[in-house]
Predict the structure of Putative glucose-6-phosphate 1-epimerase.
Amino acid sequence: MSLQALIESSPYFSITNEGELTLLTMNAPWGQAVISTQGAQLLSYIPADQTDLLWLSPNAKFAKGKAIRGGIPICWPWFGAHDGEEKYPAHGYARTSEWQCTQIQVFEHQAKINWTLASNPAYPPYASNMELEMTLGEDILLQVRFTHTGEIPERYGIALHSYFPVTSINQTSISGLNGKMYFDKTNSSIQKQIGDVSFSGEVDRVYKDVKGECVLNTNNQRIQISSLGFQNAIVWNPGEQLGSSMGDIGPDHWDSFACVENGNIQEHSPMLIKGEQFVGTIRIARR
Ligand SMILES: O=P(O)(O)OC[C@H]1O[C@H](O)[C@H](O)[C@@H](O)[C@@H]1O
């Protein structure tokens, strides 16, 4: 069924355009959402009587085949630079591909939106269909699911790369990672987290063996990020120098967001045999 046909039978949903992209919007009594069909990327979610749970860069570009800076991009079937193929795009092709919306269900206090993306033959050898279920109610609940269909076992990378608004990055901290080992991408070292994560300069870390939840604390709010099935938390803010130089962030916005991403990457990347499935879920809630 086309997206147009789906929204015609779903109260609260409509279709708009931004730049070259199509956006699905929800204006329901329990919350307002904006989702890009490119990437099946939730860009904004404002639960009733709250402010946005997600950060979308005021300088984000809405162009076909370009990553959108903000919301929750899905990095798949690899994370970061591809390990082996230099020409493959960073963070996989899921975030820059057009997904198909397969179902919209409206309930009393929430809606469920289902999306699917077939593997792209231009980027072998990944043979798998990706499915995403978004549940938007009081909180955000996202579940990704994919089954390897190729004969040869394959290693996948997956991350839900969430961007959160903060009042000032230097007054922001993340709890829940105390004692965890992390790979520091800024200097390629392995470190141990002591206490809460705080930010000064570029922070780009892959925490390992993470289970349960993290809480992002900023001046006026606490955002709880819980996950199931994911073993990495990736924490990123580019800092002033790098952030100011990035066209879709810039000098005025680098300090107004923090990324707390849930994924299975590096040594936690799932190696799937034919028929084997990976399922990962996150819940984002203001507490
Ligand atoms: O600029 P992007 O390709 O969207 O990546 C943005 C960031 O994503 C993750 O957090 C990585 O750990 C960072 O190394 C990267 O800079």
